[in-house]
Amino acid sequence: MCGIAGFAGPELPGNKEQCESILHSMGRAIQHRGPDAGGVWFDGELGLGLSHHRLSIIDLSELGAQPMVSTTGRYVISFNGEIYNFQKLKTELEAAGVRFRGHSDTEVMLAAFEAWGVERALSRFSGMFAFALADRDQRKLYLARDRMGEKPLYYGWQGRTLLFGSELKAVTCHPSWQGEINRSALPLLVRHNLIPAPHTIYSGIFKLPPSSFITIDLARIESGWLPEPSRYWCLEDQCSESQGWTVETAANHLEELLTDVIGEQMVSDVPLGAFLSGGVDSSTVVALMQKQAKTPVKTFSIGFNEEGFNEAEHAAAVARHLGTDHTELYVTEQDALKVIPLLGKIYDEPFADSSQIPTFLVSEMTRKKVTVALSGDGGDELFCGYTRYPGMLRAWQRRGSAGSRLKSLAGLLPAGLAAKGIRTLVPSQKGRSADAIQLRLARARAVASAQNLSEFYRQSVSLWPDPSMMLVEPGEGNYGLTGQLPEDVPDDNLKTLMWRDLNWYLPDDILTKVDRAAMACSLETRIPMLDHRVVSFAMGLPAGLNMQDNTGKQVLRSVLYRHVPQNLIERPKQGFAVPVAAWLRGALREWAEDLLDPVRLKEQGYWKTSMVRQVWREHLSEREDYSFELWGILMFQAWLKEQRECIGTGEVDEYAR
Known about the structure:
Blueprint: E1 2-8, H1 16-29, E2 37-43, E3 48-54, E4 68-69, E5 75-83, H2 86-95, H3 105-116, H4 118-124, E6 127-135, E7 140-145, E8 154-158, E9 161-165, H5 168-171, H6 186-192, E10 205-207, E11 212-217, E12 230-231, H7 247-265, E13 272-275, H8 280-292, E14 298-304, H9 312-322, E15 325-331, H10 333-339, H11 343-347, H12 356-367, E16 372-374, H13 379-382, H14 388-397, H15 405-410, H16 419-425, H17 434-448, H18 453-460, H19 493-520, E17 524-526, H20 532-540, H21 543-546, H22 554-560, H23 580-585, H24 589-595, H25 598-604, H26 609-621, H27 627-646
Parallel strand pairs: 13-14, 13-16, 14-15, 16-17
Antiparallel strand pairs: 1-3, 1-9, 2-3, 4-5, 5-6, 6-7, 7-11, 8-9, 8-10, 11-12
């Protein structure tokens, strides 16, 4: 795994030596992604520079160093990721007469571009990647990202300079950096506790969407202009269902497919292990790893002492059955307190999935023993694993019926109705504050007014139904929850929910969380479930095949139970949650109180101070649990404090040292 960065533009910030110095500075800012080596490449005639910091995984020699130039000199690449099928591609290219100097996947990529062109080569790669590729003959720059969005890539104009990099902290080191906060991104943060692609917290800077690339003509580059991303692979195309599958036949095919994919992803010239939660997804990955391994697979899990949050004991039971070399860590409030100050630095922009804390801690622990870890992420989205799916579909189907008394009244009660009147009409709301009742009514109104399932999904997963409740300037940008599945996809509401999660929640939440937390510790993560062959197979199955009696993952469970006894797995789904509600009332209270200080909030001018303070008081009183809603606000406040102190300094933070 690596970190990439660079710049292009009609005006260079100095001579070659000065430009290379800037590239080194951009690279050092993301040195945690690649602490083993670093290099830069600059072409003054093209007006383009590339920076690279390397975490050596395949071909540890200098022959794997980047930025790498192709044998003809036409292409130059700075590449972050792994191409798992590079050996097969290498064999094919060698048969066509190509000769290789080393045995890195980067060299194979360059040869593929030479032989097949950029877009066709992209369609042949199986892997996770983000790269910047210079075509010196055509005077073009390509920026590309893998199909499912495992690896990040930011890009955009600042002044007359086009900047790009694996993380925002790399582009903030360029002297052209302006760093204006993008207020239209804040409503998205309020709604979802993250900022979805293509938006970022900064004006003019974007996230390249998954399965996309952009082509920039360096001969005609114009300040402020960017081409629309092109897609080289479409998730929608994978949704056409194949008939005739049973759970058993689908499980047979899936096990064969996953075995091959995991075998490819176990190739490494450095120590390798796996995250193990004891759930269906990670247990399946570890079971199929151990099936192919010659020695016990190193596995890692994390637990909590708080009741209802601990899965470590289940992971330990699975590890014992499979015979892995298992390590576990129990997280305390004090562990969380140590991580909190790092979160703004790690994520570069406000990101508020509170499981980011244990994800960082398990990555930190894992990196002490291995350099690469396989993960079970993606199973919920691909095989109907989320427990919210059945409930969401039932709510959608009965949206026109009576439903609960509160929801039925939501569309009838005026927005300004006093809390006393609401409590009289809806006795179940006795004891709740006026603000709490109004929030519940607003949520019910938003969900009930949805015109289609996609809008219903958006409102159902929104923390705040109307960001204007919290923000001074609530204008909201468009993002990946717009649009519908193509008309030729079977009418399957369950698949629509899965498609939404795969397009939005997976890349913008789950994969962002894992990538930043792991790379902050210089740990490479690999996710077998997200190999595009597995994705295509899973999305081609009738969704109902996986969901039986409100329990999902039937096909994946069938694979797992061939290797692990069912009684070690079957239990209510917990997810990777942390007891943040209790922590905010305990060890984190002082930290949160400082960030939510009313004077600070008013001076900043982003939040409606009285509403934020009311929500905070409600949470502290234990009348309501607003931990999820508050976490997004707190992460913005922590990030804002951090960026005002450190942004643009080029400072390198050794997170895990």
